[in-house]
């Protein structure tokens, strides 16, 4: 770290930008038409997912790339009334530390970060296009995880903890990916907040059919990171034309108003109401880059489910939620309210670096943590809790 007097910090929400071969390097040729391909269409490089042109991002080369943190004021009220297209025009050639782990360590030292959880950018959008073909989804993310191991490793020098991606679409393959991750010292596994399409139709994430997956994750003491991703409009497609971008000038105002928090609220409520935590009392789930606006209604809803269905839950569903789930709020969320809902021991710090909607300087969040007015609580948010989850403390 640049200043040995600084307290250690673990940032649970950092990202790489995938190269074009992240899904193809290790994908068998016979699977490529059903998984991910790259093509030049109309003079532009595009990726084809499940046989369709993907619109998750307009430039999958990520070069040039929008600068980190340029949307900070936009999310704090947009005081200058700038359009999102104008803000996103602030681009630069892709820096090497977005794709090279040793260069990332140098940047972490500059930022004063002891450790980070490293999470996907592009990959969080690709399961949606593959979900109706479970074998293809399983093959695509198996290949993706091998690329991730090549370029980043799952634990690099006890500082960069990169997360294999799990799709529950094929249960044996998912268990195999967990075993592969654990054999390479993975501490975290990332999923999107969505039900899973299987050979038997749609299933809730807490459905007992997936118990073999959850059982292995619990046994390993791994953290399941539920990260924001493309989930098909969060049910709003019946109201408005769904667009993959739910922020800014091209999004429907309805998507902006109610879309973002629906997926994570539904997912975490499903885990609780499916009694997953009763079957797996040591399971750990972290909500990352989903913000915290969903918490008040989620807590109220689970409380209502508890008293309206007496005897259904073995214990208070709200307390189950608080015991098994950790939340990384957005930097613009009210941290005091998040702590009130979850308890300070279940709140994590995530900067979303280097995404444009995140913090350009991750430790800027210490100013937010200082609102707790308690050095012990601040340290829990910035280091202690995440370090314990990551088995660093």
Polypeptide structure, described:
The chain has 393 residues and is an alpha/beta fold. The chain has a single domain (10-61, 95-390), classed as Alpha-Beta Barrel (TIM Barrel), CATH 3.20.20. 35% of the residues lie in helices and 15% in strands. It has 14 helices and 14 strands. The protein has helices spanning 72-75, 84-87, 101-111, 127-130, 134-151, 171-183, 211-220, 253-273, 276-279, 295-308, 317-324, 335-342, 365-369, 375-389; strands spanning 10-15, 36-41, 44-49, 52-53, 65-66, 91-92, 115-119, 160-162, 188-192, 196-198, 201-203, 223-227, 284-288, 325-328. The strands form 5 sheets. Strands 9-12-13-14 form a 4-stranded parallel beta sheet. Strands 1-7-8 form a 3-stranded parallel beta sheet. A 3-stranded antiparallel beta sheet has the order 2-3-4, with no helix packed on it. Strand 3 and strand 4 (52-53) form a beta hairpin. It is globular and about 60 Å long. The model is unreliable at 1-5 (pLDDT under 50). It holds the Pfam family Amidohydro_2. Residues 99-389 form the Amidohydrolase-related domain. This is Amidohydrolase. InterPro entries: ACMSD, Amidohydro-rel, Metal_Hydrolase. One of its GO terms (molecular function) is hydrolase activity.
What is the share of helical residues?
Answer: 25-40%
Round the Cα radius of gyration to an integer and report it. 20 Å
What is the architecture at the second tier of CATH? Alpha-Beta Barrel
Distance between the termini: 18 Å
Which whole number gives the mean pLDDT? 94
SSE arrangement, N to C:
EEEEEHHEHEHHEHEEEHEHHEHHEHHH
Total strands: 14
- Decide which structural class fits the backbone: alpha/beta
Low-confidence stretches: 1-5
Provide the CATH top-level class: Alpha Beta
